[in-house]
Specification:
443 residues, alpha/beta, Adenylosuccinate Synthetase, Chain A, domain 3, Adenylosuccinate Synthetase, subunit A, domain 2, 2 domains, ten-stranded mixed beta sheet, four-stranded mixed beta sheet, 13 helices, globular, binds guanosine-5'-diphosphate, binds 6-O-phosphoryl inosine monophosphate, binds magnesium ion
Length: 443
């Protein structure tokens, strides 16, 4: 069946695929990236950093990647960390070393020289700023992501290429510490950072990093020119997007599909296909509005059955029903060409399953993402109730074998989305997957 997804006759017709999260992250991007990866020549991360936590079931072992692209497990793949990613070198080498212990080589890994570095002060400032926000805090991963992107935008960021000339690195660091140390000491009452110590630590990373640094935009474009298959692996999700998400409860990058062009250095017209990863229900980690959240037994069941605990921070994820308004929003913002529906097996535990199809606010029903966030904060979700299937579907491989009620749920999602569901995931393992290429979407 995978043939149908990627081939038309003998011809491959979609060399550049962007894979994105349609919700608030943790949709199962890692599993689907891994699933598609054996057909790919390159897997590229284009935004975010080690705030991501992508879980892959590798030969029965659960592995978690935060920074390295999920294609790393295939020796034929070139994994790429693009210019739009923020790189914590300590985490990068930790992941490389952990993979090496499992005989997985990162030799082919390429890191963009234009990617920005996460520096020690970013980590400290992330935590300190959250603390200062008190009750208004975002609930970040404390990985220094926001401060690193803020410095990039303020043009005081330090890039991977700066590490290749330690003299330049030192000059840039001294300049930036002239700003950061007074903030650390005067605003937050913390100790100043010692530039020499940072130079010493980062000089060690520089030595190791050299072999991986490359012009990744050039490499990716060359690969596409040669008709190679490139998968752009999104991190986070559409509702965490800095522009389109639930600001300020978002991350600091652009997880939407358009971010792939900027964050990897390819023209937007090179992208052939955008797959949205959609969890069969909704979860969110951290603070911020969440209309379909279920702070009750339903939410608890979703959390326990779906094992909804953060891959990066271990925090319990907030859980709720699927939100059709958000599906439509994700289709629109990302130009989704298809959907991979994940964790459908988790819903097997419910007699009745709900889908939100609109938001009611002050007597009006919104079927599209509301124009003002107050509406999103305060709305009452309008639900449709569907029959559950109450059967274990984790071992089903063919669409035809799914229970009638499961097919109905899938159909309803397709109707709301207006794009086909191509892949259905019914378990964390690679083979717990149903390929489904329904050509006509009933609207
Ligand atoms: P990502 O950040 O989008 O890559 O997702 P995470 O890895 O943070 O979270 C998804 C979790 O669900 C991981 O523990 C996966 O192993 C697991 N998972 C992925 N697909 C399925 C599925 O279809 N069913 C079940 N039960 N678990 C899944
Ligand atoms: P993956 O790739 C879920 C959330 C944090 C917080 C907000 C901002 O595994 O889907 P940040 O540290 O980025 O400044 O935090 O974004 N967040 C994620 N939530 N999955 C992720 O990544 C996330 N990355 C960041 O919890 O609410
Ligand atoms: Mg995750």
């Amino acid at each position: 069946m995978l043939q149908e997804v990627f081939w038309k006759g003998d011809e491959l017709f979609m060399p550049a695929i962007v894979l994105i999260g349609t919700q608030w992250g943790d949709e199962g991007k890692g599993k689907i990236t891994d699933l598609l990866a054996d057909r790919m020549d390159m897997v590229v991360r284009y935004q975010g950093g080690n705030n991501a936590g992508h879980t892959i079931n590798y030969k029965g072992e659960i592995l978690k990647l935060h920074l390295i692209p999920s294609g790393i497990f295939y020796p034929h793949i070139i994994p790429v960390i693009g210019n739009g990613v923020v790189v914590n070198p300590e985490v990068l080498f930790y992941e490389i070393d952990e993979l090496a212990k499992k005989n997985i080589s990162a030799k082919k890994l390429k890191v963009s020289g234009n990617a920005h570095l996460i520096m020690p002060y970013h980590l400290i400032l992330d935590e300190a700023a959250e603390y200062k926000l008190g009750k208004a805090q975002i609930g970040t991963t404390h990985k220094g992501i926001g401060p690193a992107y803020a410095d990039k935008a303020s043009r005081v960021g330090i890039r991977v290429q700066d590490l290749l000339d330690i003299k330049i690195f030192r000059v840039k660091l001294e300049q930036v510490l002239r700003q950061k140390n007074p903030i650390l000491t005067k605003v937050y009452g913390l100790n100043p950072l010692d530039g020499d110590k940072i130079v010493q630590d980062y000089a060690v990373y520089a030595e190791r990093l050299k072999e991986y640094v490359d012009d990744t935009s050039l490499l990716i474009n060359k690969a596409l020119d040669e008709n190679k298959n490139v998968l752009f692996e999104g991190a986070q999700g559409t509702l965490l997007d800095i522009d389109h998400g639930t600001y300020p409860f978002v991350t600091s990058s652009s997880p939407v599909a358009g971010g792939a062009a900027v964050g990897a250095g390819v023209g937007p017209l090179r992208i052939n296909k955008v797959i949205g990863i959609l969890k069969a229900y909704t979860t969110r980690v951290g603070a911020g509005p969440f209309p379909t959240e279920q702070q009750n037994e339903v939410g608890e069941t979703l959390c326990e059955v779906g094992y909804e605990y953060g891959t990066t921070t271990g925090r319990k994820r907030r859980c709720g029903w699927l939100d059709g308004v958000l599906i439509k929003y994700a289709v629109r913002l990302n130009g989704l060409t298809s959907i991979a529906l994940t964790k459908l097996d988790v819903l097997s535990h419910f007699e009745k399953i709900k889908i939100c199809t609109g938001y009611e606010y002050e007597g009006k029903i919104y079927y599209d993402f509301p124009p003002h966030q107050t509406i999103f904060h305060k709305c009452n979700p309008v639900y449709e109730e569907l029959e559950g299937w109450k059967t274990d579907i984790a071992d089903i491989k063919n669409y035809e074998d799914l229970p009638r009620q499961t097919k109905h749920y899938i159909d309803r999602i397709q109707q709301l989305a207006g794009v086909p569901i191509e892949i259905i995931s019914v378990g964390s393992e690679r083979n717990q997957t149903v390929y489904f290429n329904k050509s006509e979407v009933e609207i």
